[in-house]
Amino acid sequence: MKNQQQSSDVLKLDANMRIPQLGDQQFEWYSPMEQPFSLAGFGWLREEQLYRRLPVNPAWKLPEAVDNLSNCTAGGQIRFTTNAVSLSIKVKLASAANMYHMPATGQCGFDCYIGDPGEQYYYSTARYDAKQTEYESVMFTDMERADRSITLNFPLYQGVQEVWIGLDPSASISSPPAYDNSEKIILYGTSITQGGCATRPGMAYPNILSRRVNMEFLNLGFSGNGKGEPELAHVIAEIPDPACLVLDYEANCVSTELLQTTLPEFIRIYRNKHPYTPILVLSCITYAKERYSKSLTLEKEERKQFQRQTVEQLREKGDANIYFFDGSTLLGDNAHECTVDGVHPTDLGFLRMADGLTPFLKKILA
């Protein structure tokens, strides 16, 4: 028993697994709400000054679960340019990490990318005690003094009440590179859209796409509660300057009948406000159990065909800006190796989703 206890104490055996000590580094602290920082992914930030994905008091009543999940900051990004040699963050979360199948780094952590649009490369992830609701973490240190474009991705499955950016006292700050235009790509869907269960925020498929398409992305995935309610269609239709709306909510439809009821109405409501905005209807990815369940396979095929037929019928009626994508192709060969629980993608699964969607999305936007 003693040897087993010793061999399992990884933190003592591997220094790379330990949370780094902050040391005595000095930082100047900044709010990303202030200029020249740029915040993306929060459609009502300017009016409400909250890290929240839907308005606090919308004109249409939100389902209680959706209202709650709106406080999760999936898709949020802090963007800026700096010549800092050291960068740290201070974070106050709404709650501590508590998911069994998703690392705290993805649920509650930030990660850091460096580089201009189209050339962003991962650098680091916040490292902290997952039992805590407040933490400080150094994202990089001892860098050369040179201007760099920084993107910090917000946590996927937790609320952020406060976040502060710490830079060495001699650092300069300026605006990030501009987007190609002011339009926004909106993704409405489920836990998969929200980012469950990426190991860190940058690996959710909407965030991967945001590194390939230089536009603002709004992640409106609501875990277990992307059910296509008309109230959500009305609220989402209020978002100005949409470049594209992606509907990825099949996975939360408890029945084919619910999808058949909600999808045409959701599209109708949105079309009344945005008659020419591209709409992409995305069917569900492959589940591991489909190999062993004929009924599940038939049910998902029925739903996929309904979505395809809905798009085809609308196109025949003259809507040239609505598209269908077969999500069952996204995970590719060995799809069963691409999830953490048979449903929710791992980083590999999300990367394959993004790889499949990128050329199609770019074609739509073009």
TrEMBL record:
<feature type="domain" description="SGNH hydrolase-type esterase N-terminal">
    <location>
        <begin position="28"/>
        <end position="173"/>
    </location>
</feature>
<protein>
    <submittedName>
        <fullName>Uncharacterized protein</fullName>
    </submittedName>
</protein>
<dbReference type="Pfam" id="PF14606">
    <property type="entry name" value="Lipase_GDSL_3"/>
</dbReference>
<dbReference type="InterPro" id="IPR032740">
    <property type="entry name" value="GxDLY"/>
</dbReference>
<dbReference type="Pfam" id="PF14607">
    <property type="entry name" value="GxDLY"/>
</dbReference>
<feature type="domain" description="SGNH hydrolase-type esterase">
    <location>
        <begin position="184"/>
        <end position="361"/>
    </location>
</feature>
<dbReference type="InterPro" id="IPR013830">
    <property type="entry name" value="SGNH_hydro"/>
</dbReference>
<dbReference type="InterPro" id="IPR036514">
    <property type="entry name" value="SGNH_hydro_sf"/>
</dbReference>
